[in-house]
């Protein structure tokens, strides 16, 4: 059954991106993959466990895309961070449905106590990844930070998440990117 879990997560992810979180019942996900509904319950136990798995999988995809990018040598901290901002924002504009899904699952988790721990794990992993990028760029550029990488990451992630929602609403990709670049400039 372990080999089925990634297939079920992928099917649920595709369904949620297409029709929304509320549409991803265990029955709908089973139909999407062409399996019995019992397969979902056996693999995950509940719809909430499947939703947790989707949130964590999508988060990992986004982080992997950003972390896989090898930045060019940067002369200064702001230039080094701009590379990652561009990569992260490109992930938003090239696959907005992924980020829409993360936003929707995050809001759902705020109302569902059983999902709250997965939202906290999502936030923790994103903050840690961004803090790691900030620390690495600072070290590579010889930049002494006035705040911890964790504090800078928390502010960056909060701004990013808000700008993603704005982008999903107004489709102004340039404005979102510019705001993130402005934030990076103030961090430097």
- Low-confidence segments, given as residue ranges, are none
Mean pLDDT: 92
Order of helices and strands: HHHHHHHHH
Q: What is the count of helical runs?
A: 9
Largest sheet: none
Helix content percent band = over 70%
Global geometry: elongated
Description:
The chain is mostly helical. The chain has two domains: 45 residues, Arc Repressor Mutant, subunit A (Orthogonal Bundle), CATH 1.10.10; 135 residues, Orthogonal Bundle (Tetracycline Repressor, domain 2). It has nine helices and no strands. The mean pLDDT is 92.
Outline:
This protein has helices spanning 4-19, 26-33, 37-44, 47-67, 77-94, 96-111, 113-141, 149-170, 173-187.
Keyword list:
Arc Repressor Mutant, subunit A; 9 helices; mainly alpha; Tetracycline Repressor, domain 2; elongated; 0% strand; 188 residues
Secondary-structure map:
Blueprint: H1 4-19, H2 26-33, H3 37-44, H4 47-67, H5 77-94, H6 96-111, H7 113-141, H8 149-170, H9 173-187
């Amino acid at each position: 059954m372990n080999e089925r879990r990634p297939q079920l997560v992928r099917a649920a992810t595709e369904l949620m991106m297409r029709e929304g979180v509320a549409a991803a019942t265990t029955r709908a996900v089973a139909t999407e993959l062409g399996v019995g509904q019992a397969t979902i319950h056996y693999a995950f136990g509940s719809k909430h466990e499947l939703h947790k798995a989707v949130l964590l999988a999508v988060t990992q995809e986004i982080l992997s895309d950003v972390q896989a990018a090898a930045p060019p040598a940067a002369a200064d901290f702001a230039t080094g961070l701009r590379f990652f901002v561009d990569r992260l924002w490109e992930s938003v504009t090239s696959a907005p449905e992924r980020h829409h899904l993360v936003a929707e699952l995050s809001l759902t988790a705020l109302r569902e106590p059983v999902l709250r721990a997965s939202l906290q794990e999502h936030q923790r992993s994103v903050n840690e990844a961004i803090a790691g990028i900030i620390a690495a760029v600072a070290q590579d550029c010889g930049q002494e930070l006035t705040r911890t990488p964790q504090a800078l990451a928390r502010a960056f992630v909060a701004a990013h998440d808000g700008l993603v929602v704005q982008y999903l609403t107004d489709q102004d990709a340039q404005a979102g990117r510019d705001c993130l670049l402005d934030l990076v400039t103030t961090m430097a």
